[in-house]
């Protein structure tokens, strides 16, 4: 079903498309030595579900994020700017791999960058 402003959600391929790109992002994170160590031992099913729901909600889709608050999740990780950018870079590549348009990629990044202060240097 459609909400008033779910254009980005549609462009990302709805929840299924988002779930696919998050899965590819996770494979890429494991292969990226700049950030892989941060993710050692996480609950991958939980991470996949929660990040998918978050991107679904942020893009205007009919999802509700039920994970922990961003600041709490990343607290104590000391995520650097380089690590944040590395994850963003892998997300772009995962979106590219899933045929997401450049316009949709940039609109999602713009919304995710707003979360930056709650993720880095904590
Ligand atoms: C736009 C950037 C980012 C977003 C939107 C984001 C979002 C999320 C979300 C939704 C979760 C799941 C929370 C939960 O299950 O309650 C999560 C967990 C996590 N994030 Fe991020 N994150 C970002 C950047 C990063 C970066 C750059 C790192 C480290 C290099 C990182 C490391 C982690 C780790 C290790 C977890 C798992 C924590 C745990 O389950 O205990 N995140 N993130």
In the CATH hierarchy, what is the class?
Answer: Mainly Alpha
Oligomer: single chain
Task: Outline the biggest β-sheet.
Answer: none
Hetero groups in this structure are: protoporphyrin IX containing FE
Name the overall outline.
Answer: globular
Describe this structure in words.
There is one protein chain. With 122 residues, the chain is an all-alpha fold. The protein has a single domain (7-118), classed as Orthogonal Bundle (Globin-like). The chain has helices at 7-11, 14-31, 44-58, 70-74, 81-97, 102-113. Helix 2 packs across helix 3 and helix 2 (14-31) crosses helix 5 (81-97). The longest helix has 18 residues, at 14-31. Protoporphyrin IX containing FE is lined by residues 35, 38-39, 42-43, 46-47, 50-51, 54, 67-68, 73-74, 77, 79, 83-84, 87, 112, 115, 119. The site of protoporphyrin IX containing FE (HEM) has 22 residues, from helix 3, helix 4 and helix 5.
């Amino acid at each position: 079903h459609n909400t008033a402003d779910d254009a980005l959600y549609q462009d990302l391929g709805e929840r299924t498309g988002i779930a696919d790109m998050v899965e590819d992002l996770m494979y890429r994170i494991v292969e990226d030595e700049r950030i892989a160590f941060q993710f050692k031992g996480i609950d991958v099913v939980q991470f996949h579900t929660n990040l998918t729901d978050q991107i679904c909600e942020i893009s205007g889709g009919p999802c509700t994020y039920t994970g922990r608050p961003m600041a709490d999740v990343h607290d104590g990780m000391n995520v650097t700017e380089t690590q944040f950018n590395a994850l963003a870079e892998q997300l772009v590549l995962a979106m590219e791999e899933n045929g997401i348009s450049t316009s949709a990629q940039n609109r999602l990044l713009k919304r995710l960058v707003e979360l930056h202060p709650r993720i880095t240097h904590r």
